[in-house]
Amino acid sequence: MPPRGPEGFFPLNDLEALLVRAAGDPAQRPAFARALLEATLYAATPDDDQREGERLLRRGEQVALSMAPLADGTAATAAFTAPERVAQAFGSGTRYLAMRGRDLLELAAANPLMLNPGLEFGVLWSPDDLAAMLGRPVERTIERETGVLLGSPRERPEDLLGRLARAFGPEPEIRAAWLALAQWPDRDAFAWYLDVRTLMPRERLALILGQALEGADFRGLPLDLTTRPPGDPEGTGIPVVEPR
After folding, report:
1. 3-state DSSP call for residue 112?
2. CA end-to-end distance (rounded Å), the chain
């Protein structure tokens, strides 16, 4: 029997069962995040003229999604783990889009996203959180002197290292790169830390990384990216591209 949440929250599918487990056990959260990308999610839409049935969304097509208000006065895209949850939050008869989790996260990645707003079990993700879940590196801007703990992982992330090496190897503008484990003072968990020596434009580097890391095994950790000009001191961790 799936775990039962407070106030009679009974999981309606495997993803909701994982959500309940992850809420009580942080060790289950990476498995939930991986399952979320492949599961079907549901986004309420204010479009009353939306046609029923399956259709293909074209690249660049504008889709209106309902938003959930946040405590700071902003709003997050509302997503749900089952059609019944859409009705619980927005009322019976509310129209919705159903799509693969990865596709919905990519569609809404520029804004915060709230899973199951107003219900007993839900999650709020920032745009940086969504980028990490989608395998997009998050570039951090250091605005003040910040101490970060860097080290080499006990077990090499071979899939991640291989993808980075294959992507960076043919790029002469990438002069060196290292991958380390990082713990930032404002985080309780670890993250991958990719330290690159290059003058390549950020947009091009982001495109290379996005293509290389789609579907990569991040072992449940986000990926932070920092770039510095060639000639700066060597980085910490596992060399991805030896200085050249």
Report:
1. coil
2. 57
Chain segment 108-155, per-residue pLDDT in tens: 888 899 999 989 898 998 887 887 777 776 655 544 445 567 788 888
Is residue 134 within 8 A of residue 163, CB to CB? The reply is no
> 78 pairs with which residues across the strands?
114
Spell out the residues 6+ positions from residue 199 whose beta carbon is closer than 8 angstroms to its own: 173, 229, 230
Domain residue ranges of the chain, discontinuous segments joined by +: 6-133, 138-241
pTM of the model: 0.62
* CA pair distance 29, 119, nearest whole angstrom: 19
CATH 1.10.260 is the classification of domain 138-241? no
Closest by CA to 193, choosing from 184, 202, 205, is 184
Length of the chain: 244
Give start and end residues of each alpha helix (H) in 110-232. Answer: 127-133, 158-168, 202-213
CB neighbours of 116 closer than 8 A, spacing ≥ 6?
Answer: 19, 79, 80, 81, 85, 89, 122, 123
Contact 200, 232 (CB under 8 A): no
Three-class SS state of 86: helix
Give, for 103, the enclosing helix (H) or strand (E): helix 101-107
